[in-house]
Amino acid sequence: MSEEFLSHCRHIAGEPFVLTSAADMAPFLDDWRGRYTGKALAVLRPADTEQVAQLVKACAQWRVPLVPQGGRTGLVLGSVPDDSGTAVVLSLSRMNKVRSIDAVNRTMTVDAGCILQHVQDAAALHDCLYPLSMASEGTCTIGGNLSTNGGGTGVLRYGNARELCLGLEVVTPQGDIWSGLRGLRKDNTGYDLRDLFIGAEGTLGVITAAVLKLYPLPKASSTALVALGTARDALDLLTLAQDRCGACLTAFELMSDVCLQLVGSQFPELPKPFSRPHGQYVLLELDSCESSQHANGMLEQTVSIALDRGIARDAVVAASEAQSRGLWNLREHISMAQAKAGKNIKHDISVPISRIARFIGATDAKLRDAFPGVVLVTFGHLGDGNLHYNVGPPAGVPHDEFLANQAAVNRIVHDQVDAFGGSISAEHGIGALKRDELSRYKSPVEMAMMRAIKATLDPLGIMNPGKIF
């Protein structure tokens, strides 16, 4: 049966784009962190939406599970197959065209395989901004961003991937093409099908294209790194910055001193803005549609008030684009520094912004009681309540040995998240990694509704099986 199926796939996509050898498939089977390798019957690389539709029809006919895949930058095993070897990987990497840009309507229509950075660059050529931004933007794709409802650093002002998408093109599990590529801000014509597929992690269909929102390209940006004593001070600074800067406040990133010490040890060439350590730091950025003087003046005033009120202990305001990039590099190198230092237990969580300081204090204490000497690497998008709350081993404890405590660490962290009214997944999705945790924290009613939607749209259960459910 598999040979007949694969022969049909070769007829659809072309022989070079149906990969079956172990060497050819290997780059598509590892997860981003290198901790898991799946197996696949084949890797299919369609050239366009019509080929996707025909391949999905073939999968439905032969009952072959399929795993949609974009840039493979996910952290929850959402885009890699399991170890059964029965599924095919459907890589959309060849579908990477910008279909059109409407600068007046401020929309861009792109293939799902477009790399995020390429979309940003294409928008800029038309004096427009596509504001979704994240550390993996040079590799991640629009389809993956939408399938996980990615967030990144600009959510505070612009919203996450869902808010930045007006329309979708989707291939259903039956191989039909739903063309919902409408660049409309208002369209009240029944159920919002778009929102079903955004954040569904490829379990309901394959996103093949999207209409994205664009914004005016800012005339100037201004960046500062502010040193603080506690996370409570960071919340006070956020309130001050929002009150004084309003919609100009684009990014508000929290980093603990542990984060900056880690970055400094692994990347000594990066800037060292302060002569002595502080408990917490906030990287904040303002965008202005007026001028650099407007952005710089607003930021300098805000920082000055924070220092006068004792909210901030010290601050560095970037005097050039190069200095701004240097400050951002400190934030964006945290995950890379962690990877170089060794394995750790990662959490992508969110809690109401007003409760973040109490959450950090209470959860830090519980983890230190359970695992004395544990290293807590806490950073994230404070402006939207999203923390990357990562846990490393005590000094002298081998990383692999400490990873054996992952279930116990997760229970402490996730129970605390639940107690504070938060979510165990803020922007990375559920995938296979958090599948069992989901049913613990979602109500039976929520899980039943989600399963009903899955069963209705994908009755054969071939779309990204084992993910979310």
UniProtKB/TrEMBL annotation:
It comes from Massilia soli. Keywords: FAD, Flavoprotein. This is FAD-binding oxidoreductase. SUPFAM superfamilies: FAD-binding/transporter-associated domain-like (SSF56176), FAD-linked oxidases, C-terminal domain (SSF55103). The keyword Flavoprotein applies. Residues 36-217 form the FAD-binding PCMH-type domain. Belongs to the FAD-binding oxidoreductase/transferase type 4 family. It comes from the Bacteria. The keyword Flavoprotein applies. InterPro entries: FAD-bd_oxidored_4_C, FAD-bd_PCMH, FAD-bd_PCMH-like_sf, FAD-bd_PCMH_sub1, FAD-bd_PCMH_sub2, FAD-linked_Oxase-like_C, FAD-oxidored/transferase_4, Oxid_FAD_bind_N.
